Structure formats: structure tokens, C-alpha cells
């Protein structure tokens, strides 16, 4: 029918539009599936861990870290999808920047910070609990590591809420307009800017360092120290052929810790490549940013479930319809995160 009405050049244009809409539909569907999986998985971890904390009658550090990572991942996944969806909808073409968009940016950065730093503190907790230190100072820290990590999590949450508050002051200014590059541009995309009283370069430098390099500086050394200790301990136990099951449990902790850190590093690399390519004028799709965060949220949620005995048993009971074993009712304080 289209071929009878339109000339050949118009037919090609119409076919291109149909293919573009079909491709966009598949992309949107695939992204929506990833978001649903990530949100549901991390919500399961969050609810199960909080219920276990309540059942145990107190706040345990391992459970608190799992809860903060899961909570951060839920908001991170939803806010990332919301930002991408609003950009698809042309919100940056509006005359005034909606406060809703500023709120999503705030939640996006705050939840990223909370999740990233929680993984760093989890790595520190495992390192201090497992590795033996000869120094008296480290021995005292090891004795009080749980309260220290609890305070660190509280400070991280507070910093995450306060540091990104200036994003609520984003707005358009006259110099924020971008000239259209083609005649067919339907709107002029505008760039939100901070008020003039904010030192943009200094502020961006501070929150980027707090968001990426600092967690890496905490996470990587503690993870490496943990891996070295656990590998030596595992080899020694296998050499003596004693307590092989315990050796396998130590090896599981080692693998999962490395995997969790690897997920964070991979996500950080993906995000960095996206922004660097944008600085050099590349037309890379913003979908790559959403896919990077989707990978992080889903992978970290799955690793947390595998590493925690209670979460594994609850998930097994949920899918298999059987009751979890009585061991799942033990306090989270009795776990090192695996075994």
C-alpha cells in the first residue's frame, strides 16, 4: 500500500522509520526486562536481610552492609532508567528544567555513592575479620571492627545525602543553549548548569573523587590482602588434607570478594569510557550507560545472594516451594558472608 502511494525515495524513508521504531521497541523491552530483574533481585535481598535482622533481635554488620548495597542498587537502577527515559522523551528540550529531573540526578548519584562505598566497607570487614595482624593497633581494630564499620556506613549515608544536594539547584541559563546541528532538529537541547556561586570545577572534582577513586583505594588493597591470606590458608589446609569443606568455604569467600570488586571495576570502566567518548564528540548511545549500571546492579545482587547462606536458602525455598533449613534462622553475625 505504501509503495503505491509514495515515490521510491519516500518509500525508503518510511521503511527506515518503521525499522527504527521496531528497533527502539526491542531496545526498550530489553532494558525494561533488565530493570525488573535487577530491582526484584535486590529487593528480595533487602527484604530478606531486614527480616532476618529483625528476627535476630539486633543489627548485625554483615546484614547492614547487604541491606545498604541492595537499597542503593534498587534506587540506582530505577533512577538510571528514569534519567534515560526522560532524555528519550525530550525533557531537556523543555523551556524550564523540571525539578523531577534534578531529583532523579540526585538519587542516581547518591545511590551510586552508597552502593559503591558499601562494597568497599564489606571488603574491609572481611579483610579485618579473616586476616591475622601482629600489631596491637590492628588487633584492637579487629576486636571493634563491627561498630567501626557501622559508623562508617552511617557517615557514608550522610555524605551521600549531603554531597549531591547542589543538583537541586540546576537550571538553564542563556549560555546553556546548544546550536542545532541540522535543519531537521525538532528542538534545541539545553545543558543544565549550576548557579554561578558554585565553583563548578572544584565541586565536580570533589564528588568524582569521592564517587570513584576513593572507594577503589579502600577496596582494592583490602581485597588483595584478603585474597593472599585466603589462598595461603586454603593451600595449607589442602596440603594437610584437613577440613577440606572449610577450605572450600574460604575459597568461596575469596572468589566472591574478587568477583564483587571486579564487577565494580568493570562498571567504573564502562562509565568512564562512556563519558570520555562523549567528551570527544562520539555518538555512543546512552543505552550503554544504562546497560553498564544494569550489569552492576544485577551482578552485585546475585553475588550477595550466593555469598550469604540465609539468602541462598530463602531463594531456594522461594523457587522450589520448600522450607528453608533451620540453619537459616541463625543470626547473621555467625556468618562471614559465605560458607
UniProtKB/TrEMBL annotation:
One of its GO terms (cellular component) is membrane. It comes from the Eukaryota. This is Taste receptor type 2. It is a multi-pass membrane protein. Gene3D superfamilies: Rhodopsin 7-helix transmembrane proteins. Its main location: membrane. Belongs to the G-protein coupled receptor T2R family. It comes from Hucho hucho. One of its GO terms (molecular function) is G protein-coupled receptor activity. It is found in: Membrane. InterPro entries: TAS2R. Keywords: G-protein coupled receptor, Membrane, Receptor, Sensory transduction, Taste, Transducer, Transmembrane, Transmembrane helix. The chain crosses the membrane at residues 16-41, 62-85, 105-128, 148-168, 202-228, 249-276, 288-306.
Amino acid at each position: 500500500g505504501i509503495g503505491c502511494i509514495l515515490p521510491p525515495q519516500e518509500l525508503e524513508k518510511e521503511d527506515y522509520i518503521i525499522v527504527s521504531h521496531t528497533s527502539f521497541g526491542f531496545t526498550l523491552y530489553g532494558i525494561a526486562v533488565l530493570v525488573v530483574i535487577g530491582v526484584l533481585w535486590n529487593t528480595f535481598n533487602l527484604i530478606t536481610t531486614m527480616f532476618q535482622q529483625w528476627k535476630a533481635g539486633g543489627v548485625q554488620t554483615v546484614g547492614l552492609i547487604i541491606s545498604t548495597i541492595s537499597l542503593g542498587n534498587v534506587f540506582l537502577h530505577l533512577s538510571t532508567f528514569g534519567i534515560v527515559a526522560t532524555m528519550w522523551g525530550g525533557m531537556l528540550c523543555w523551556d524550564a528544567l523540571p525539578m523531577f529531573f534534578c531529583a532523579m540526578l540526585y538519587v542516581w548519584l547518591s545511590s551510586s555513592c552508597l552502593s559503591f562505598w558499601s562494597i568497599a566497607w564489606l571488603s574491609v570487614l572481611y579483610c579485618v575479620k579473616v586476616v591475622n595482624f601482629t600489631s596491637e593497633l590492628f588487633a584492637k581494630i579487629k576486636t571493634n571492627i563491627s561498630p567501626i564499620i557501622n559508623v562508617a556506613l552511617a557517615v557514608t549515608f550522610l555524605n551521600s545525602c549531603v554531597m549531591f544536594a547542589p543538583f537541586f539547584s540546576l537550571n538553564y541559563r542563556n549560555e546553556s543553549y546548544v546550536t542545532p546541528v541540522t535543519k531537521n532538529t525538532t528542538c534545541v537541547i539545553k545543558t543544565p548548569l549550576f548557579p554561578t556561586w558554585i565553583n563548578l570545577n572544584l565541586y565536580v572534582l570533589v564528588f568524582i573523587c569521592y564517587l570513584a577513586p576513593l572507594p577503589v583505594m579502600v577496596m582494592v588493597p583490602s581485597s588483595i590482602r584478603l585474597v593472599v591470606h585466603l589462598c595461603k590458608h586454603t593451600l595449607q589446609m589442602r596440603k594437610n588434607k584437613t577440613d577440606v569443606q572449610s577450605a572450600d568455604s574460604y575459597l568461596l569467600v575469596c572468589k566472591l570478594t574478587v568477583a564483587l570488586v571486579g564487577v565494580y571495576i568493570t562498571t567504573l570502566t564502562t562509565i568512564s569510557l562512556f563519558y570520555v567518548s562523549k567528551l570527544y564528540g562520539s555518538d555512543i548511545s546512552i543505552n550503554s550507560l544504562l546497560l553498564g549500571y544494569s550489569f552492576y546492579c544485577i551482578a552485585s545482587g546475585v553475588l550477595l545472594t550466593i555469598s550469604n547462606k540465609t539468602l541462598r536458602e530463602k531463594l531456594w525455598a522461594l523457587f522450589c516451594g520448600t522450607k528453608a533449613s533451620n540453619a537459616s534462622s541463625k543470626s547473621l553475625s555467625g556468618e562471614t558472608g559465605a560458607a
